């Protein structure tokens, strides 16, 4: 149900931002890349739990760096015609990408637990 709601809101947002589709797409792409890099860096498996805070801080720094660089690059290329549409798009897709990555992580962990349980029983 949540997947269909996200798809519906994304399509409606894209239609409503018809005149400013470049701003919408820049917000979408920057949000997904920034959240993806932050997620990939922050949730690395390590043998040292003391590094968890360092990984979270470095993930946050990478997310902010990608966002700032992307906004500066997009403004230089004049891709962002409407800052309001960009901001709403970035906010929405940042939340969607975060939700998606955590759902994917939950799915992978349950699959791994099922495989481990199957291997232990045989």
Automatic annotation (TrEMBL):
Organism: Enterovibrio norvegicus DSM 15893
Transmembrane stretches, start-end: 23-41, 53-73, 79-102
Keyword line: Membrane, Transmembrane, Transmembrane helix
The name this protein goes by in its record: NADH:ubiquinone oxidoreductase
